Amino acid sequence: MAKHSPAISAGTKRRLGRSAGDLATAATQQMETQYHWYRELPARERSWVSGVAHAGIADFIAWVRDDAPDTTSVFEAAPRELTRSITLAQTLDLVRSVVETVEAHVEELAATEEEVAPFRESVLRYSREVAFGAAHVYAQAAEQRGAWDARLEALVVDAALRGDVDPAIHSRAAALGWQGVQDICVIAGQVPRPAGRDIDVAAIVDGLRRAAARAGHPTLVAVQGADLLCLVGDVQDPAEVGSHLSSHFGRGPVVIGPVVPDLARASVSAVAALSGLRAAPAWPQAPRPCLASDLIAERTIAGDTQARDELLSAIWEPLTQAPTLRETIEVHLGEGHGLEATARALFVHVNTVRYRLTKVTSLIGFDPADPHDALTIRLALAHGRLLEGSSNNAP
User: Fold this and answer.
1) Which tens digits make up the pLDDT trace of 184-218?
2) Radius of gyration, alpha carbons of the chain
3) Containing domain of residue 257, as a range?
4) pTM for this one?
5) Closest CA to 292 of 315, 259, 324
6) Would you report the helix, strand and coil content of the chain in percent, each value rounded to 5?
7) Sign of CA dihedral 184, 373, 319, 386
């Protein structure tokens, strides 16, 4: 650290020491007059800032005497929470007030006229050193806060995935800026693995978060093993959001869970997204990203009982309520998707079959003409018949 000029005499140092209280008071009054942010601070934070101003004067006096090796000690007068209450720019305003106060009294503090110039030079050198010290303190605080926020975020995401969202989790989510967020979906994929380089989890998470923020969506992101999970809020079109963020995931499928009302229900979306991620290899032509609902057949095959129930509810139950349509689709799938073969089997005109299949698509939202949709319908019918058979055989 640069030393003060040796031209400052012992007399000037004594004058400076005796004026410490008055200088600190003057610096605080200057802040009160000059900076609205200081006037708007709560009483506790104002006392912290005032303490730093007094410490700044005392530290300058010690610095002039060569007794202060570390200008970051100025900020020990306030707790670490100060870096959350005021910004680095505001802290530099505080330093500037201290320096300007001392500089304004240089002529009356200097024991001789010859000491005015070197005394003023010492003030300017000190201002540079303490500004660097402030930047160092804020950099350390940001690093520690970043590590803490990452741990807190992982905790909140884990609780949301498990469906264990209590008031404490809501409070922690609020500390991350996730307060009152609605219309949430979970996007699941693999962690990117750059060739020849180590995985930089912080960079991956930051990139995903920035991309979502540009689209106006709050996010909570966590890495769990090889999985990268992102909770996205304020979602109106999950497919659009997934398309916007999918490039930030690694190779392989990216699956989007259904939109749920709030954080307490996020586990519903997460279960579907993760189930879809595990089942996606069964459909090599699956789009990227893919809605979990589009993988309902594969999820059912993989043993997801929730997906099976959804399949029955979406396809089997509506068709059971429309026996003619159910018979038509069963025959159509059994006849190899041929319209004429289906018409002959049912003793109806081919246009009647065409009309009924259109009604099937309208009723269940799956198109028998699409190969993947046809597989989904066939699987739903198979599960439904098994369920129906077990009910009929029940004593």
Assistant:
1) 999 999 998 877 677 777 788 888 888 998 889 99
2) 34
3) 170-301
4) 0.63
5) 259
6) 70, 5, 25
7) negative
